[in-house]
Amino acid sequence: MLNQIKGLHHVTSMAASASGNNRFFTDTLGLRRVKQTVNFDAPDVYHLYYGDEVGSPGSVMTYFPFPHIARGRPGTGEVGTTLFSVPEGSLGYWQDRLSKANVEGLKSDEAFGNKRLHFAGPDGDGFALVEVKDDSRAQFTGNGVGQDQAIHGFQGASLRLRDEGATAELLKFMGYQEMDRQDGVVRLGIPGGNGADVIDIETMPNISGARLGAGSVHHIAFAVENRAKQLEVRKALMDTGYQVTPVIDRDYFWAIYFRTPGGVLFEIATNEPGFDRDEDTAHLGETLQLPEQHKHLRPFLEQHLEPLDGSLKA
Predict the structure, then answer these.
(1) How many other C-beta atoms lie within 10 A of the C-beta of residue 102?
(2) Residues 6+ apart with CB under 8 A from 115
(3) Are 156 and 197 in contact (CB under 8 A)?
(4) Which of 123, 182, 186, 314 has a CA-to-CA distance to 297 between 20 and 30 Å?
């Protein structure tokens, strides 16, 4: 069993509108936009990152907004719900805030001893705010959300699968342990993890496969401390029979990817070097940052990309 993985690093999804996506995560959820850059493989498309003040691993929701992309079809083989940790007693505040913002899909429930408020993102994305006791992670308290309500980061995520078995075994190999079962959902967690260390598996044998589109999670990334730990994980996965990509430099972390037995794309990402490698912490996400190989495209991109709430210019 591996011990290098400490929980989630980030979750990356698809969207239809960059400006609408930006407004939702900053104005409505009160997160900080910690980076505006572009998709490495499609540089005419943004890659937007939202999280706590510094973009700590385990707090960062990222998006590829493809204009006019069709909405995804929910199903098996994907991340179902991304779970955000909020302070105890704050769900009433969030119910009121999200209602006033006309957020759809609001529904309260309780699972594994935690009160939750489910809601949908602009493209039907599945989210829930979860009251978590004694989450000590620092919060970003901008955009009108106070410390008694602000999001700490992820609690974790749920996977919708036709069959639990092979993916559960993979997660256990990655260091997760089964914590509980409730209403057909198995909860796995990493003891002493980074706070974003819970994965729920929902088994849905009679549901058709998901179709990727706006509102779909593209991949879910797990955190390791550094490149040396990442290489240890890569070797162990390959020795177990998984087809893992070479290490890819994503500017703010190094990444490897592999497809799980249930169909979900997993990434292992490093905590280093972080989002302040090319911007001062006080000004994260304010200007367009480009990977070295795409810097020559800046004049085109500044004309082509949809304006957000700040200048695209560096």
Answers:
(1) 7
(2) 91, 108, 109, 130, 131
(3) yes
(4) 123
Pick the CATH number of 8-304 from 3.10.180.10, 2.102.10.10, 3.40.640.10, 1.10.340.30: 3.10.180.10
> Which stretches in the chain have pLDDT values below 50?
311-314
Cβ contacts of 148 within 8 Å, gap of 6 or more? 87, 89, 90, 93
Task: Give CA–CA dist 249/177, Å, rounded.
Answer: 30
Sorted by where each begins, the domain ranges of the chain are: 8-304
Token duo for residue 229: 């730990």
Amino acid at 110: E
pLDDT value at position 310? 53
Other beta carbons less than 10 A from residue 313's beta carbon: 8
Spatial CB neighbours of 183, under 8 Å, sequence gap ≥ 6 = 111
Task: Tell me, yes or no, if the pTM score tops 0.85.
Answer: yes
DSSP secondary structure string, 151-180?
--EEEEEEEEES-SHHHHHHHHHTT-EEEE
Q: Residue 49 has what pLDDT?
A: 98
> Exposed, middle or buried, 235 (CB in 10 Å: 0-12/13-18/19+)?
exposed
Radius of gyration of the chain (CA): 18
User: How, if at all, do strands 198-203 and 8-15 pair?
Assistant: unpaired
Q: Specify the pLDDT at position 311.
A: 43
User: What span, in angstroms and rounded, lies between the C-alpha atoms of 175 and 8?
Assistant: 12
Exposure letters 284-298 (e unless 16+ CB within 10 A, then b): bbbebbbbeebeeee
Q: Per-residue pLDDT tens for 169-225?
A: 999 999 999 999 999 999 999 999 999 999 999 999 999 999 999 999 999 999 999
Token representation of residue 122? 């602009």
